[in-house]
Every structure is written in structure tokens, then in C-alpha cells.
Amino acid sequence: MPDRVYFEPDALKYELGERLRGEFAARGIPIFMTTSHNRVTKIPGDTRREAFFAAKRTLVIGVRRSKDFQTSKPSADYALPLVTGCPGHCQYCYLNTSLGNKPYVRIYVNVNEILARADRYIEKNAPKETVFDGSCTSDPVVVEPWSGALRTCIEHFAQTRYGRFRFVTKYDAVDGLLDADHRGRTEIRFSINSEYVIKNFEKAVASLERRLNAARKVAEAGYPLGFLIGPIMEYEGWQAGYTKMLNDLAERLSGISPTSLTFELVTHRFTPKAKRIINEVYPQNRLPMDEQNRQWKWGQFGYGKYLYPKDTFEELRDFFYRRIPAFFPQAHILYMV
Ligand code: SF4
Questions:
Q1: What gap in Å lies between CA 66 and CA 335, rounded to an integer?
Q2: pLDDT tens digits for 155-186?
Q3: Which of 28, 75, 156, 174 holds its CA 20 to 30 A away from the CA of 118?
Q4: Which helix (H) or strand (E) holds 84?
């Protein structure tokens, strides 16, 4: 439930925008108009930290203007832009780099126009399949009960011959997706981690228990299921922590047979910009961000990041590539970065 909502005027020309205005007004949530999300002005806060926390509880309802989609390797061919930002407080969040100065959550109401653009990418690539990821700039599940955008996309891609859709979440608001006509063309993935990482670094997201309940539900609804383990961290006792996580996961999934099961493995990394913002807004954080223990790498979007050094990465890789098949012989590990 947001604390305040901004509308861009053009958003009200769309049925979804008008409906959302009615729903927020009925709940008494303060509504403001703004000519552009860049001019959002009424977010309270005297300090960077206060403004950051208030912005995370602010929704902006707008129209997605940019026509081109970003590429999204290795999880998909393209990012499908449905939502930007997330109200969660995972201290390590990758959005701290890309959205650190604008952490409010933006919902785009022109979903059908975005999907029409996706169709053009599919046509261009056919007969090769084109995969879209709906979670590259957000966690879209957290606002799904408002927007219904994921359900619209799931049912859209179900009708395509060469399009596939996937997204990942740390929330459990999936009930509205369970009876969607997905035809197996959407993979729903849950981001999970060891108890140590969840307890120390993830706030304002669903508990692991709730994520796994949601995972069971989507598997029972016939969706291909995936787990993104990340960020994988090296800490004292990490082997025992991640073994327990895999063991718990296997127990929770026992008795269900997802149509497919994938794992993606993402090790912890940080950018200099993210480190600065994280230390400002979460000053007590205990994230492992000592550059001395890391290896620098230039990234896809022109900024660099600090990764684990090669030896550490290989140790982590070896661990997961041995343990996951032992617990889940039917699973595919798609990649580890
Ligand atoms: Fe970031 Fe995902 Fe956590 Fe949201 S749920 S704060 S997008 S890591």
C-alpha cells in the first residue's frame, strides 16, 4: 500500500490509469499530478535516508515512452519494461546503482503498447524464440495486485508462437496469476537465499516461507518454475547455510513435479555508486563491500563493478554445480555469474 501516488496526465488517458486513480482515491491515499516523474516533489524527508525510505513508498503512474527495449543477458533476450523500482529494502539491491537517486516505484499503464513493441521483436527474430524478462528494473509481483500487468503479459505471450516470458520475485502475490491462460510460455522464478543473507540483508520482502508457498502454487498451476539464488555470498559457514537452503527447498517442493525447473546463480557484486548510496541509506549495513577482496570488471552499461575474485567464484561454482544436481536431478542450471 503506497503512502502517496503521482499520476502523469497522459496515464489518465488509459483505462488502467483511470481505474488506479479511482482505487487509490477510494482508499484515501494522497494523489498528486506531475508533468513528469522527474518532477516528483512532495516526497518528504530532510535527509537522503529519509527521502529514500519515503520514495520507496511512493508510486508514480505513468506512460512508458521509450520504444526500444534493453537487452537482458544472461536471463533473457530483452527486458520487458512494465515497472521500475521496488518498495523492498534488500540492502544489496542492484537497483541502487541504476535507480539510487530515484527509488520511487513507477507503473506503466500502456501495457498493450509495450506488448505491441515486444511482438515486433518476436517477428524480427522468428523462427528463433525471443525471451523477455519482466523483472530487470523492478520486482513486478509486488505491484501486480494493482496493475495486473503480469497477467496481461502472461496471457499475451501464451498466444505467441515464438515469444516467451519470465520474471523473478521475492514476493508472493501470485494468486491473481494462478488461473491465467499461460500455456507454459511463462516461467515464474523466485529469488531465494540462505537464512544468513535473508536475515541480515533483506527487509520489506516476503519471507522465504511465503516465497516457497508461492512457488508451490505456481508449480501446481502448471507454470515452469525457476529459482534464482542470489546474491550468493561468501561468509563464514556459507557451505552449511546454502546446503540447508537447498535441503529445505527440496523438502518444500517434495510431491510436486514442475513442468520444468531451472536455477540461476548470481554472486554478490557491487558498484562504487551503489556502495556510496547503500552506506548513506543503510549506515549500519554489514554487506561485504571491501574492494581489497574483490576483482574489478567493466559492465554492460558502461559502469564497472566489484566481483568476487576468480578463486572464490570457482569455489562457489563448484559447490553449487555439485549440490544442485544432487538435490534436484531434474533441474537445469542455466548460468552462474
Ligand atoms: Fe531489489 Fe529485488 Fe529486493 Fe526489490 S526485491 S529491493 S528489486 S533485490
A1: 29
A2: 999 999 999 999 999 999 999 999 999 999 99
A3: 174
A4: strand 83-84
- Residue 284: pLDDT above 80? yes
* Substitution site in 83, 133, 170, 201 for ligand 1 pocket (most atoms within 8 Å of beta carbon): 170
Q: Residue 326: which residues within 8 A CB-CB, separation 6 or more?
A: none
Rounded to two decimals, the pTM is 0.96
Q: Are 27 and 21 in contact (CB under 8 A)?
A: no
The C-alpha cell that represents 116 in the structure block: 505491441
Pocket of ligand 1 (CB under 6 A): 86, 88, 90, 93, 95, 139, 170, 205
Measured in angstroms, how far is the CA atom of residue 89 from the centroid of ligand 1?
7
8 Å CB contact between 173 and 141: yes
* Pocket perturbation via mutation, ligand 1, pick of 53, 75, 86, 91 by most ligand atoms within 8 A of CB: 86
In 3D, which of 144, 239, 145, 226 has the Cα closest to residue 192? 226
Q: What are phi and psi of 68, to 5 degrees?
A: -85, 150
Q: Which residue has the cell 537522503?
A: 48
C-alpha cell at 200: 541480515
> What average pLDDT does the segment 18-41 reach?
92
